[in-house]
Write a structure and sequence with these properties.
mainly alpha, 3 domains, 2 strands, binds zinc ion
């Protein structure tokens, strides 16, 4: 029954894999096009866990890439990526809890739209005047209705009691049912991170994605890869004289320090010498404070991005650029993005 949905997603992804998309670009496609596909099906049915697992696998393989038939190293868990930006994720909709929220619409419909044909039919022929909150699943009922009952039970268990479940439905009720509101109540929230939303706000998406990976210290720097059991020679390709770690590559490296010195003085911020300073700067950043703040955030993330890009270019393509050249690129991005 769900094969057409899986085939559609596979076909769509196969069209994209030939393009050289950034992680941020892929995440946007997952959260728009792929989301649109399972969202359409999930509006009417409770998707089986096996199907959700297959869709998630297709999305993860697409996002991280496949090499020699296996998925490349995953540096940030799917669960973390599915968290909202304020919690340090990128807000990919987690299919299971989103599907639950969609299905709660039928519970809402029975309570708030009792005069619809479907509600009247259920109240008359299935509930037979009984209380929805006391309904139980039965083999004599349809698969569809049993799923609605399961969702009602899930709602009671998540809310803690029937009266709280009623309050939750009430909080999502308006001229229509607010699925997003229900989803935020059903999902298990992670801790808020001070830099979360600011990293993404007005910044170039691929710079923001890299910034997020960096804030979690999850970039595949050589020391991280060695910790994961890969045998590699650890040498920073930017200065060729120290070991590569996140702290060294982006801050202590003499090449990176040259870039920071130039960009920090141009943006009129302190020169960053550690990730902790970057995070603390983000914490002091006031959202919506105006162009100056936005320029600084864009510049800071662009600097991190161009240092990482230069490192990858030297390792994988043998390309070398000077610190001055990278500073010009960073300033160009800031002037264009913040204009
Ligand atoms: Zn170095």
């Amino acid at each position: 029954m769900y094969q057409p949905l899986l085939e559609k997603i596979k076909n769509k992804i196969s069209h994209w894999t030939n393009n050289s998309l950034s992680y941020a670009g892929k995440a946007i496609l997952i959260n728009s096009v792929i989301f649109g596909m399972h969202n359409f099906w999930g509006a009417s049915v409770l998707l089986p866990k096996g199907v959700i697992k297959k869709i998630n696998k297709l999305c993860k393989d697409f996002l991280w890439g496949i090499e020699d038939g296996t998925r490349r190293h995953v540096f940030l868990s799917w669960k973390s990526l599915c968290n909202p930006k304020s919690e340090g994720g990128i807000g990919i909709k987690e299919i299971l809890s989103w599907n639950w929220a969609q299905m709660m619409k039928w519970v809402w419909k029975l309570l708030y739209r009792p005069h619809s044909i479907w509600s009247k039919w259920i109240h008359h022929y299935v509930l037979k005047g009984g209380d929805l909150w006391q309904a139980t699943t039965s083999i004599s009922h349809s698969w569809y209705w049993n799923n609605v009952v399961k969702m009602k039970d899930l709602l009671i268990s998540k809310a803690g009691s029937i009266s709280s479940a009623v309050d939750w439905i009430d909080a999502c009720s308006g001229s229509t049912f607010h699925i997003g509101q229900m989803h935020s109540m059903l999902r298990q929230p992670a801790n808020l991170v001070s830099w979360g939303a600011l990293v993404h706000h007005t910044c170039v998406p691929k710079h923001a994605f890299l910034g997020m990976m960096e804030m979690w210290n999850k970039l595949p720097t050589v020391d991280n890869l060695i910790q994961r059991g890969l045998y590699l020679v650890n040498r920073c390709v930017l200065c060729c004289c120290q070991n590569e770690s996140l702290g060294h590559l982006f801050f202590q490296c003499s090449f990176a320090a040259q870039i920071w010195s130039s960009i920090a003085s141009w943006l009129q911020v302190c020169s960053f010498t550690s990730l902790e300073l970057v995070i603390s700067w983000f914490m002091s950043c006031v959202p919506g404070k105006g162009m100056a703040s936005s320029r600084k955030r864009i510049g800071l993330l662009a600097t991190l991005y161009y240092i990482w890009k230069e490192r990858n270019g030297r390792i994988f393509k043998g390309l070398h650029h000077t610190a001055d050249f990278l500073c010009t690129q960073i300033k160009f991005v800031v002037c264009n993005r913040a204009a």
